[in-house]
Write a structure and sequence with these properties.
It is built from 14 helices and 20 strands. With 483 residues, it is of the alpha/beta class. The chain has 2 domains: 170 residues, Response regulator (Rossmann fold, 3-Layer(aba) Sandwich), CATH 3.40.50.2300; 256 residues, Ribonuclease H-like superfamily/Ribonuclease H (Nucleotidyltransferase, domain 5), CATH 3.30.420.10. Strand 13, helix 12 and strand 14 form a beta-alpha-beta unit.
Length: 483
């Protein structure tokens, strides 16, 4: 007798609520799921404190002399209003910088504008074009540091004609500039030629205005309290990078990004592992720290949190990284955080092979359902086991649409993040909702969400920078210097 087929079914899915963003530290009603709509309706989170500190954001510039006027016109365009011409279901009209952020945007004095020659070969110094460009950036920031009280953010323009030099296998002008900015405590905004000809002026204004406001120490929004998240929760993002020649790497650099439970307080620790890498091939596939190094980097991260919170430790610490936690890393984490009652180690994998199709009721009995014209809703979650789950952070988000549906990017079938808990306890729905919320905390763009939580995105960017710039001191930095 033929055996009957065994049915295979996934567990029921859960739909997580779209996390709310807060636009006021004192008024709990000033919340919205849409970051740009919330800014238009309520103004930025720091509107009360920022304007008391300064009534303006002053912009310095560095770049080729021939584009000086273009840079000025670009900044002037941020003061005006612009109607959206792309993503009309998501992007609201841009109301102008002062209307939006409650502070003026203006040009810094003449001394804070540095004009380079149009050709790299005409830059002062010796050596090849990369050496000359490095010396030009160093000289520019050193000169600007002498008038640091006269500007807030510097625009640095690398024209497209310089592209063969600004980014090569051995040199990345963007990363070098950010490291120099950390040295002189000068936040920068990098421009290329495309920004001048970009046709969607409202989107361009939103992106640039947000970046400039944040780099001038403004806070556009924070996370509203998430149901079920204990008070005094903190998040740490870990990223590792092999420094130097990848074929002969001897040590690992690590950055630890520390967030408060509302997504604020973003600072990071640059850390150089002391213990040598025994297996370079394994370290390239899955970078990891020894128990001693994990203890050291998390002890510094905990101290950073305590300095911001009057010496108090968090009641719960959530650690994110993109690869699995080795046993030594987990033990090192518990060594360093012995005074924290709850510790969770969460692997956030973005390379899942899973896909999902959202089915809706059809007009026929056979088949009773049909694929929707939009993907799986953002926030869909499927439990895979007692310690792993799939969560779709990319997907249909109708609550932010001015029409009915909205799929960011509008292309392809979104893949879920795979969350694996290596240490800790509690409902996986809570860990998934936290990851979903942290995708909304990237202040460096105007999108609804980033494909990964900001704890992962920021630490990856910072690890890449410190791997490319060996002379960056192992210190504590505000993230705005590296945006």
């Amino acid at each position: 007798m033929a055996s009957s087929p065994i049915a295979s079914r996934l567990p029921p899915f859960t739909l997580l609520d779209e996390p709310l963003l807060s636009f006021s530290p004192s008024d709990s009603t000033e919340v919205d799921v849409h970051p740009l709509r919330g800014l238009v309706n309520y103004g930025p989170y720091s509107k009360g404190s920022f304007s008391g500190y300064t009534s303006r954001v002053r912009i310095a510039t560095v770049g080729p002399e021939s584009a000086f006027k273009q840079r000025g016109e670009l900044m002037a365009s941020l003061r005006g209003t612009h109607q959206p011409s792309d993503r009309s279901e998501y992007v609201p009209p841009y109301p102008g910088f002062e209307e939006l952020f409650r502070v003026e945007l203006e040009s810094a004095p003449r001394e804070a504008h540095i004009k380079w020659p149009d050709k790299l070969t005409l830059l002062q110094g010796e050596g090849g074009p990369q050496s000359r460009l490095f010396m030009a950036m160093e000289a520019a920031l050193r000169q600007l540091s002498l008038v640091r009280d006269q500007f807030d953010v510097v625009l640095v323009h690398f024209p497209d004609s310089w592209a063969p030099v600004t980014r090569t296998r051995s040199f990345d002008a963007h990363d070098v500039l950010k490291a120099l900015g950390a040295k002189y405590n000068i936040p920068s905004q990098v421009l290329n030629d495309r920004v001048f000809s970009f046709n969607h002026t409202a989107s361009r204004a939103w992106r640039l205005a947000l970046a400039l406001y944040v780099k001038a120490t403004g806070t556009p929004w924070k996370l509203a309290p998430l149901k079920g998240v204990p008070d005094d929760t903190a998040y740490i993002g870990l990223a590792y990078a092999l420094r130097g020649d990848q074929r002969d790497a001897h040590y690992v650099t690590c950055c630890s990004q520390v967030f408060d439970m509302d997504g604020g307080g973003m600072q990071f620790v640059a850390f150089e592992a002391r213990d040598p890498v025994a297996d370079v091939a394994e370290a390239r596939r899955n970078p990891f720290l020894s128990r001693d190094d994990m203890r050291a980097v998390l002890a510094r991260s905990l101290a950073l949190y305590q300095r911001r919170n009057g010496g108090n430790s968090p009641k719960r610490m959530v650690i994110h990284k993109t690869t699995g936690f080795k046993r030594d890393e987990i033990e090192g984490a518990f060594d360093a955080l012995s005074g924290v009652p709850e510790i969770e180690c969460i692997e956030v994998g973005a390379a899942s092979c899973w896909r999902g199709v959202w089915l809706i009721k059809s007009d026929r009995n056979d088949p009773p359902s049909k694929p929707s014209g939009f993907p799986v809703p953002r926030g869909t979650m499927v439990i895979r086991s007692g310690r792993s789950a799939l969560v779709w952070v990319a997907g249909n988000a109708p609550t932010v649409s001015a029409k009915s549906d909205y799929y960011q990017g509008g292309k392809s079938i979104p893949k879920p993040l795979q969350l694996i808990r290596h240490a800790g306890s509690g409902p996986l729905e809570l860990s998934a909702h936290e990851a979903l919320a942290l995708t909304k905390m990237d202040w460096n763009n105007d999108a609804l969400y980033d494909p990964v939580p900001v704890s992962i995105r920021y630490s990856q960017r910072l690890a890449r920078t410190i791997a490319n710039v060996p002379e960056l001191p192992g210190s504590v930095y505000p993230y705005r210097l590296f945006m």
